[in-house]
C-alpha cells in the first residue's frame, strides 16, 4: 500500500453518496440531502457550466454552505477529468481597439514596474496605480499569482506528486474562491469542508494583523509597513519557504485547515503564515478568505489578488452592497490635505531629479486643487451660515482637481511613481531618494480608487459618488467626504473578471433588486424553502405590553415614551421566559436602544428579576468570544440563559446557535437604518433618481435593508431539520407586514396574541416539541465540553468544542507502557496550544525514554494518581505527524456537557487502527501500517 493510500486511511475519510446534476457527479456526505440542498447544487452547477452568475437564497439552517462547497468541488473535479479551459466572460483580446492613450499608460505603468525592486515575497503597504490597473482589467494577465500554461496540467497521481514537490501544482483549470464575511464563518466552513470526500489543495488568506506570529509586527499600528521593514532588516524569526508543509497538503493530517491550524503549524516550524498562505494561493484549488479581500479594491490591490477566470462564491452575501460602499468611500480633512501639500513641497525642494520633479509636482497639484475647492466652498458656506454642502456636479469637482479624460493617464503614472517611493522601492535617482510620508500614501490610495471608478468605461459611473463638505469649528477641521451610493460601479468589474460569481445567503430578497443594485446580470436564481415542518416553528407578533403600552420602535415614539416601553419589554420577558427552555436571544434595533433599556431595567429592579429567571448576557460593540462561550456554558450547566444583542451585530449575523442555545428569538422593532443619517438620505435620493432605470426606489431600498437585517436575526432560531423554536416580534407594525416575510414563514404566524395567553401556548409548544424531539442524552461535538478524570471526576481540561479532536487506536509500545494500557486502547489528541485550558491538579511526570522506538513520553497524571495520558517527546516523528500535544486515554477520562456525562467514544467513531514505528537503520522514517 502506497504512502498516499495510508494517509487516506489515517485521515478517516468521510463517507459519501453520489448524486448527478447536469452530468456532474457530486459526492455528498448524506444519503438524503435536503430538497433545498439539491436545488442549490443543481442551480450552482448549472451556473458553473454556463459561466453565468447566480443568486441563491436559502434559509439559515438548510445546509447551503455544504451544498455550495460540494457542487463547486464536484464541478472542479469534473473539469479535471475533462481538460478544457472554460472561456471567461470577457475575451482578453476583445478590447484591443480601446483608446491609444490607455495602451500608452499601460506601457508606462509597466516600465515603472520594471524599475521597482520591492522586498522579496512581500505585498506592498500601498497599491501602486499600475497594480490596481492590472488587477482590475482583464486585458492584463501578468499577475504573479496566475498559473502559467506549463503549470496548467492535471496530475494523474496528485497525492504522491504533490507531497514530493516543493510547490504544489494546481490540478484544475478553474480555481474556487470561497469567501464569507468573517473568519468565524470561514472556520465553520472548514468544518463543512471536512465532511466532504474531496481533497483540494487549499489555502486561507488573512491580513498580517490577524495572522502574523511576530509580536512587534502584529501589535504595531501599521503591521504591513512594519512587516516589510522587519523582513528587510532580517529581524523577523519566521522564515519564508516555498515548500508547503506535508500536513497542509492534500491527504495531509491538516489538509483542511483553518487559520488557527495554519498558525499552529507555522509556529512549530518557524514559518511565516502570511507568506506561506500567499505562496499556497498560487497553486491552490480552493482559496478561502473574507470577502473584504475581493470587495475592497484597496485590499485586493495590496494583496495582488487575481481572480481572473475563477469561480467566486460569496457566502453570507446580504452585506455585500454595504461592504463595497464603505470600502470605496473616504473622508479627508483639510488639515491633512494641507500637510500633504507642505510635505510634497519640502520633498521637491531637496530632490532635483527630473522624473521626481515632474511626477511629484503632479501629485502636489492634485492636492492643491483639492484644497482650492474646499477653500472656495468653505468661504461661501460660512458667509451664508451653512455647515454642509453636497456637490451636485461631479465633473466640475474633478475639473477643480485638474482631472479629466486627457489628464487622468498622466496622473495615474505619477501616482504609480509616488507609491513606488512610499513602498520603499528603488528608482534610478542619483543620491538618496526623498522619502514620502505614509500619510500621503493613505490619501492617495483612497483618492485613486474614487477617480479610477468614476473615469472607467467612459465615465459611466462618474455620478456614483456624492462629495459632501462639512465645515468644522475652524477651517482646518473642514472635512470632504466621498460617499459611494452605487456598489455596482465596482462589483460589475469583479463579475466581469471571474467565470462565475455566486451570491448566497438566507436573506437576499428581493432578488431582482439585488441584481440591480450590483449592476450585474444574475441569470440563475433560487429562493428555497426551509427544511422544517410548520409545527416546528411558531411566530408571534406583540403590539402592546401587559399594561396596554403601545409597542412601537419608531424614533419619535421611543423618544416620547422610552421609559414606559422599556418597562413593558421587561415585564413581557418576566412573563414568558419561564415558559421557554434553553437559551433566548433578544435583539434590539441598535446599541443605544439596548443600553437605554438596560439602564431602565437596572433602575427599576427589573434587571435582577429577569436575571433570576435566566442569567443575562449582552452584546457590546467590542465583543469578545469569551462572552459567547460563557453564554453557551451557562445553558449547559443551568439549563438556560438570555442574550441581549443588536440587529446587524455579530450575534445576529456571524454566530451559529445550535438547539438549546437559541430556543427562541425575540426582536424588538424593525431595524431600519437611521433615517436621518446623511448617507442613508443620499442613498434613498440616489435610488429615486434612477428608479426608472434600475427599478429600486429609495423607499424599497430602505425597506430591503431593514428586513434583511431582521431575517438574519430571526434566522438564528432554526438550524437543522429536527430543530424547533419560536420567534417573537415586538412592534405593532409587524401584524401588518407579514407579506414581507418568506413564504415558508407565513403559515407559522400567530398575530397579536395577548402576552399571558402566549405564555401558556409557549409552555405547551415546548412540551410537545420536547416529546417529539427528546433532549439529547449524548455528547455533541460542537458543544463546550469539560473533560474529567473517570476515577475521581476531577476537572482536567475545558474545551470550547470537540470538533478538532483526533481519536485513533495508536499502537506504540512506549505510549502503552507509559500509560499502563494495552494495544487496543483508543486515544484522543489535544493539541499543545489548548494546554492553557488545563485545570489545576494536573501534573506531568518525568520523561520516559524507549530505546526501541527512539522516542520518549511524559506521563500526564491526575491529582488522584491516575495516569490519564502522555505527551510525545520525539524528534522526526512528532515533526512529521504534528503530535506535539497530549494523548489522553479514553478509558481514563469522560466528557461532560451540562447534565450529560459520557465516554468520549460515544462521540468519536474509531475506525482506524495503526502501528507507527521508525523504519530504516539509524533513521526516523515514518511508516504507517494498518493492523489486520
Automatic annotation (TrEMBL):
GO terms for molecular function: ATP binding; DNA binding; DNA helicase activity; hydrolase activity, acting on acid anhydrides, in phosphorus-containing anhydrides; iron-sulfur cluster binding; metal ion binding. GO terms for cellular component: nucleus. The keyword DNA repair does not apply. Keywords: ATP-binding, DNA-binding, Helicase, Hydrolase, Iron, Iron-sulfur, Isomerase, Metal-binding, Nucleotide-binding, Nucleus. One of its GO terms (biological process) is nucleotide-excision repair. It comes from the Eukaryota. Residues 23-375 form the Helicase ATP-binding domain. CDD domains: SF2_C_XPD. InterPro entries: ATP-dep_Helicase_C (IPR006555), DinG/Rad3-like (IPR045028), Helic_SF1/SF2_ATP-bd_DinG/Rad3 (IPR014013), Helicase-like_DEXD_c2 (IPR006554), P-loop_NTPase (IPR027417), RAD3-like_helicase_DEAD (IPR010614), XPD_DNA_FeS (IPR042493). SUPFAM superfamilies: P-loop containing nucleoside triphosphate hydrolases. The keyword Protein transport does not apply. Pfam families: DEAD_2 (PF06733), Helicase_C_2 (PF13307). PANTHER family: DNA REPAIR DEAD HELICASE RAD3/XP-D SUBFAMILY MEMBER (PTHR11472), FANCONI ANEMIA GROUP J PROTEIN (PTHR11472:SF47). This is Helicase.
Amino acid at each position: 500500500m502506497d504512502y498516499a493510500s495510508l494517509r487516506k486511511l489515517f485521515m478517516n475519510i468521510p463517507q459519501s453518496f453520489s448524486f448527478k446534476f447536469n452530468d456532474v457527479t457530486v459526492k455528498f456526505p448524506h444519503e438524503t440531502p435536503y430538497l433545498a440542498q439539491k436545488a442549490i447544487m443543481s442551480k450552482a452547477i448549472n451556473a458553473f457550466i454556463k459561466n453565468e452568475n447566480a443568486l441563491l437564497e436559502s434559509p439559515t439552517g438548510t445546509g447551503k454552505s455544504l451544498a455550495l462547497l460540494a457542487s463547486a468541488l464536484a464541478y472542479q473535479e469534473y473539469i479535471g477529468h475533462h481538460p478544457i479551459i472554460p472561456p471567461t466572460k470577457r475575451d482578453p483580446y476583445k478590447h484591443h481597439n480601446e483608446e491609444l492613450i490607455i495602451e500608452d499608460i499601460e506601457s508606462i505603468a509597466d516600465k515603472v514596474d520594471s524599475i521597482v525592486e520591492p522586498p522579496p515575497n512581500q505585498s506592498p503597504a500601498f497599491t501602486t496605480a499600475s497594480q490596481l490597473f492590472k488587477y482590475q482589467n482583464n486585458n492584463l494577465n501578468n499577475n504573479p499569482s496566475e498559473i502559467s500554461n506549463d503549470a496548467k496540467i492535471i496530475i494523474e497521481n496528485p497525492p504522491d506528486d504533490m507531497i514530493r514537490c516543493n510547490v504544489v501544482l494546481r490540478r484544475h483549470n478553474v480555481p474556487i474562491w470561497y469567501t464569507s464575511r468573517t473568519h468565524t464563518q470561514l472556520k465553520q466552513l472548514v468544518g463543512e469542508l471536512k465532511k466532504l470526500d474531496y481533497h483540494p489543495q487549499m489555502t486561507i488568506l488573512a491580513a498580517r494583523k490577524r495572522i502574523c506570529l511576530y509580536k512587534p509586527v502584529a501589535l504595531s499600528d501599521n503591521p504591513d509597513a512594519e512587516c516589510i521593514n522587519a523582513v528587510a532588516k532580517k529581524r523577523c524569526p519566521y522564515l519564508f519557504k516555498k515548500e508547503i508543509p506535508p500536513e497542509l497538503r492534500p491527504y495531509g493530517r491538516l489538509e483542511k485547515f483553518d487559520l488557527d491550524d495554519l498558525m499552529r503549524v507555522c509556529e512549530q516550524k518557524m514559518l511565516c503564515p502570511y507568506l506561506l498562505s500567499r505562496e499556497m494561493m498560487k497553486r491552490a484549488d480552493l482559496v478561502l478568505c473574507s470577502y473584504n479581500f475581493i470587495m475592497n479594491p484597496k485590499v485586493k490591490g495590496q494583496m495582488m489578488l487575481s481572480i481572473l477566470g475563477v469561480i467566486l462564491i460569496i457566502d453570507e452575501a446580504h452585506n455585500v452592497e454595504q461592504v463595497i460602499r464603505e470600502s470605496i468611500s473616504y473622508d479627508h480633512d483639510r488639515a491633512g490635505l494641507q500637510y500633504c501639500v507642505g510635505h510634497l513641497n519640502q520633498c521637491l525642494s531637496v530632490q532635483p531629479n527630473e522624473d521626481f520633479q515632474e511626477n511629484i509636482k503632479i501629485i502636489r497639484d492634485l492636492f492643491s486643487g483639492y484644497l482650492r475647492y474646499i477653500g472656495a466652498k468653505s468661504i461661501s458656506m460660512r458667509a451664508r451660515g451653512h455647515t454642509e454642502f453636497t456637490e451636485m456636479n461631479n465633473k466640475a469637482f474633478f475639473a477643480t482637481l485638474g482631472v479629466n479624460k486627457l489628464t487622468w493617464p498622466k496622473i495615474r503614472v505619477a501616482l504609480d511613481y509616488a507609491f513606488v517611493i512610499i513602498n520603499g522601492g528603488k528608482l534610478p535617482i542619483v543620491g538618496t531618494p526623498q522619502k514620502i510620508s505614509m500619510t500621503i500614501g493613505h490619501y492617495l490610495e483612497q483618492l485613486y480608487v474614487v477617480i479610477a471608478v468614476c473615469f472607467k468605461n467612459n465615465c459611466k459611473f462618474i455620478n456614483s459618488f456624492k462629495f459632501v463638505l462639512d465645515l468644522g469649528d475652524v477651517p482646518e477641521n473642514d472635512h470632504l467626504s466621498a460617499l459611494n451610493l452605487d456598489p455596482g460601479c465596482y462589483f460589475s468589474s469583479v463579475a466581469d473578471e471571474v467565470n462565475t460569481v455566486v451570491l448566497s445567503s438566507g436573506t437576499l430578497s428581493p432578488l431582482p433588486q439585488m441584481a440591480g443594485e450590483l449592476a450585474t446580470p444574475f441569470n440563475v436564481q433560487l429562493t428555497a424553502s426551509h427544511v422544517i415542518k410548520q409545527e416546528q416553528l411558531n411566530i408571534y407578533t406583540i403590539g402592546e405590553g401587559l399594561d396596554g403600552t403601545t409597542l412601537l420602535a419608531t424614533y419619535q415614539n421611543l423618544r416620547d415614551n422610552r421609559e414606559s416601553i422599556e418597562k413593558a419589554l421587561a415585564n413581557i420577558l418576566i412573563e414568558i421566559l419561564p415558559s421557554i427552555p434553553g437559551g433566548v436571544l433578544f435583539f434590539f434595533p441598535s446599541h443605544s436602544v439596548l443600553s437605554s433599556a438596560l439602564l431602565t431595567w437596572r433602575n427599576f429592579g427589573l434587571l435582577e428579576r429577569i436575571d433570576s429567571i435566566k442569567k443575562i448576557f449582552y452584546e457590546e460593540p467590542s465583543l469578545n468570544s469569551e462572552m459567547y462561550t460563557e453564554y453557551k456554558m451557562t445553558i449547559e450547566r443551568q439549563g438556560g440563559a438570555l442574550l441581549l444583542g443588536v440587529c446587524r451585530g455579530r450575534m445576529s449575523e456571524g454566530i451559529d446557535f445550535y438547539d438549546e442555545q437559541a430556543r427562541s428569538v425575540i426582536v424588538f422593532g424593525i431595524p431600519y437604518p437611521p433615517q436621518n443619517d446623511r448617507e442613508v438620505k443620499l442613498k434613498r435620493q440616489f435610488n429615486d433618481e434612477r428608479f426608472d432605470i434600475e427599478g429600486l426606489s429609495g423607499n424599497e431600498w430602505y425597506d430591503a435593508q431593514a428586513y434583511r437585517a431582521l431575517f438574519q436575526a430571526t434566522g438564528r432560531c432554526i438550524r437543522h431539520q429536527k430543530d424547533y423554536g419560536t420567534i417573537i416580534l415586538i412592534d405593532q407594525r409587524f401584524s401588518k407586514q407579514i407579506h414581507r416575510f418568506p413564504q415558508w414563514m407565513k403559515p407559522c404566524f400567530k398575530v397579536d396574541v395577548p402576552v399571558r395567553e402566549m405564555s401558556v401556548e409557549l409552555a405547551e409548544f415546548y412540551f410537545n416539541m420536547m416529546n417529539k424531539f427528546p433532549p439529547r442524552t449524548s455528547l455533541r461535538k460542537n458543544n463546550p465540553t469539560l473533560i474529567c478524570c473517570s476515577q475521581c471526576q476531577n476537572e482536567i481540561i475545558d474545551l470550547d468544542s470537540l470538533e478538532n479532536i483526533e481519536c485513533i487506536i495508536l499502537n506504540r509500545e512506549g505510549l502503552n507502557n507509559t500509560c499502563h494500557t494495552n494495544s487496543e486502547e483508543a486515544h484522543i489528541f489535544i493539541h499543545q496550544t489548548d494546554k492553557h485550558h488545563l485545570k489545576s491538579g494536573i501534573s506531568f511526570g518525568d520523561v520516559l525514554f524507549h530505546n526501541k522506538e527512539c522516542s520518549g513520553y511524559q506521563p500526564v497524571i491526575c491529582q488522584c494518581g491516575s495516569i490519564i495520558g502522555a505527551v510525545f517527546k520525539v524528534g522526526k516523528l512528532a515533526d512529521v505527524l504534528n503530535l506535539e500535544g497530549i494523548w489522553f486515554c479514553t478509558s481514563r477520562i469522560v466528557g461532560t456537557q451540562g447534565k450529560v456525562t459520557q465516554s468520549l467514544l460515544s462521540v468519536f467513531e474509531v475506525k482506524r487502527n495503526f502501528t507507527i514505528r521508525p523504519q530504516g537503520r539509524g533513521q526516523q522514517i515514518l511508516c504507517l501500517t494498518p493492523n489486520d
